[in-house]
């Protein structure tokens, strides 16, 4: 080799090495700017990415990842940040589920779902005539289960945390203490909720002000900042004991709620066995009971497996017919059998047994609508709020986390002096067999109320691997529609080979057995609707379905998407 060539080679070598060293290391992490931030819907990142419901929460995640934090570190920071910047669903007063897949190839799930208080009982929402009074399970102090988020984050931290916990919660404290500018959507949400905040609170929360909120107003939450500092100082004891616990119990007493000091002390988050199954060579990792999400998704994917859905095409009448019929059957099973496995015997093995699942489709005739039993119920129109985020780090650790206070702004009760909203998760129990809850969902004994029991959920945080490598992180809010949204997103990605952007943003449909309707978003293809109506299905338009956060790894890059249906936003490096 002549000298010139040698020089060229060594320069090239040097450049490549420099690129590798620099390429694996972020530039100096840029701190989060709480007063000036864009909403980023779609981007591609080389190393690590976050998609969440709020730009500032995604930015907090990016900041942690850039400092060398893992996906799990970032998840804890994002969960706390959402509790500040996204009060309609982000929370410390609610609960959720976290699915983790480590770079070593292990899968874990953490259940931090709320629990019924110790003095809750089966008929607590029935009036003297035995009728269910859902206003009590949906709003105000009696609607809250014992919150699980703080215990869940502690369990996750003890198991996976690598950075100092104090640093992970600090961005949330700053956002609460110094404030941040709210988005137009948030301003509208807070204005819409003003009457309820006034009605259900004994002390005026930070969310209520004289003049209507406007885009880019600053929201400061001093009480919440103090609560977060107690958690920073004492871990979960800073929430379930001491001052915060005292404030929660006092709030309960003022408003006729039943969460006691003992209930708070007794709360534990739990590690659960993940649901893992194969779908056409992809490994799907998702959440088991007390969320019904994973089981129902597994049932539905098993049921569609024998059919060449990829040939039918996206939202063709054949594909919609097949997907609706599997949704109908799986949701019927959900209603009948599923509940908290610590309290009821759920025949899990049977429900996902291939023979059983396939036998459920024995009465399926392609291109024909079957019928659910007729009952008078429907999806309540009110906006639902839960929130999901997806994270991948530079080493391939992945976190899929869905968390909720159930309805938008939960029970609307803000703990006086502690500054956070309590959930209205008790409505996810079946208040009375045959009486649909907020999401039109029915339940039986399996999901009846009992002290310390967890209410059945639909939350479906999910991770997908392909050839043993990270492929996708998926999840969404949306009440009963969560499961079908995750199902559709997976089919869009795995069968229709769509981009993450299309998989998230194309219109969605939903069937939940009862009521016997196909719910669709307003921009659903009218031609597809007409063709499927001709098969005997009844359609109903509704508000947006879900707000799905997807990260997709293709060709060594992460495609990150925040749903166009909200302020959802992505970040990464
Ligand atoms: O756990 C559940 O299934 C419900 N509490 C979720 C509520 C929800 O997704 C509302 N959000 N859009």
UniProtKB/TrEMBL annotation:
Q: Which domain of life is it from?
A: Bacteria
What are the entry keywords?
Acyltransferase, Glutathione biosynthesis, Hydrolase, Transferase, Zymogen
What GO MF annotations does this protein's record show? leukotriene C4 gamma-glutamyl transferase activity
Q: Coiled-coil segments, which residues? A: none
Q: Summarize the PTM comment.
A: Cleaved by autocatalysis into a large and a small subunit.
From the UniProt record, list the reaction(s) this protein catalyses.
Answer: glutathione + H2O = L-cysteinylglycine + L-glutamate; an S-substituted glutathione + H2O = an S-substituted L-cysteinylglycine + L-glutamate; an N-terminal (5-L-glutamyl)-[peptide] + an alpha-amino acid = 5-L-glutamyl amino acid + an N-terminal L-alpha-aminoacyl-[peptide]
**Pathway listed for it?**
Sulfur metabolism; glutathione metabolism
Return the Pfam families for the record: G_glu_transpept
- In the Enzyme Commission scheme, what number(s) does this protein have? 2.3.2.2, 3.4.19.13
Q: Which family does it belong to?
A: Belongs to the gamma-glutamyltransferase family.
NCBIfam families tied to this protein: g_glut_trans (TIGR00066)
SUBUNIT field: This enzyme consists of two polypeptide chains, which are synthesized in precursor form from a single polypeptide.
- This protein is called Glutathione hydrolase proenzyme
Which species is listed as the source? Sphingobacterium faecale
Q: Which gene encodes it?
A: ggt
């Amino acid at each position: 080799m002549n000298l010139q060539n040698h020089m060229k080679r060594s320069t090239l070598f040097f450049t490549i090495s420099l690129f590798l060293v620099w390429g694996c290391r972020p530039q100096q992490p840029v701190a989060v700017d709480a007063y000036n931030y864009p909403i980023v819907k779609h981007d591609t990142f080389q190393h690590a990415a976050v998609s969440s419901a709020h730009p500032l929460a995604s930015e907090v995640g990016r900041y942690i990842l850039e400092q060398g934090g893992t996906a799990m570190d970032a998840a804890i920071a994002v969960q706390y940040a959402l509790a500040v910047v996204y009060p309609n669903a982000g929370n410390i007063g609610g609960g959720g589920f976290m699915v983790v897949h480590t770079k070593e190839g292990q899968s874990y799930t953490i259940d931090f779902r709320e629990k019924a208080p110790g003095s809750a009982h089966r008929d607590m929402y029935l009036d003297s005539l035995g009728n269910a009074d859902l206003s009590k399970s949906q709003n105000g102090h009696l609607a809250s289960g014992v919150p699980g988020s703080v215990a869940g984050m502690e369990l996750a931290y003890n198991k996976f945390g690598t950075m100092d916990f104090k640093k992970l919660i600090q961005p949330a404290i700053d956002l609460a203490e110094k404030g941040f500018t709210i988005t137009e959507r948030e301003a509208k949400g807070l204005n819409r909720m003003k009457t309820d905040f006034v009605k259900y609170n004994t002390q005026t929360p930070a969310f209520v002000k004289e003049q209507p909120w406007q885009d880019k107003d600053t929201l400061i939450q001093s009480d919440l900042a103090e609560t977060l500092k107690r958690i920073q100082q004492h871990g979960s004891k800073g929430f379930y004991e001491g001052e915060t616990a005292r404030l929660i119990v006092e709030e309960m007493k003022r408003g006729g709620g039943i969460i006691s000091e003992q209930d708070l002390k007794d709360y534990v988050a739990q590690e659960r066995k993940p649901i893992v199954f194969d779908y056409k060579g992809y490994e799907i990792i998702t959440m088991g009971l007390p969320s019904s999400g994973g089981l129902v998704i597994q049932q539905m994917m098993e049921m569609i497996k024998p059919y060449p859905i990829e040939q039918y095409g996206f939202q063709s009448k054949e594909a919609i017919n097949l997907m609706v019929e599997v949704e109908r059957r799986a949701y019927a099973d959900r209603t009948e059998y599923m509940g908290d496995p610590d309290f009821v015997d759920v025949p899990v093995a049977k429900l996902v047994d291939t023979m059983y699942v396939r036998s459920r489709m024995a009465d399926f005739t392609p291109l024909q609508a079957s019928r659910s039993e007729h009952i008078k119920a429907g999806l309540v129109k009110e906006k639902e709020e839960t929130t999901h985020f997806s994270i991948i780090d530079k080493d391939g650790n992945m976190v899929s986390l869905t968390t909720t206070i159930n309805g938008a702004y939960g029970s609307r009760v803000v703990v006086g002096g502690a500054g956070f909203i309590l959930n209205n998760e008790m409505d996810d129990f079946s208040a009375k067999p045959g009486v649909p809850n907020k999401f039109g969902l029915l339940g039986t004994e399996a999901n009846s109320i009992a002290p310390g029991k967890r209410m059945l959920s639909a939350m479906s945080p999910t991770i997908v691997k392909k050839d043993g490598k990270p492929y996708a992180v998926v999840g969404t809010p949306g009440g009963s529609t969560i499961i079908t949204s995750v199902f559709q997103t997976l089919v869009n990605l795995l069968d229709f080979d769509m981009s993450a952007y299309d998989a998230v943003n194309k219109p969605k449909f939903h069937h939940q057995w009862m009521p016997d309707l196909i719910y669709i978003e307003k921009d659903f293809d009218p031609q597809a609707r007409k063709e499927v109506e001709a098969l005997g299905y009844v359609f109903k338009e509704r508000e947006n379905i879900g707000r799905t956060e997807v990260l997709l790894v293709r060709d060594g890059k992460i495609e990150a998407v925040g749903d166009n249906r909200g302020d959802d936003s992505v970040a990464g490096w």
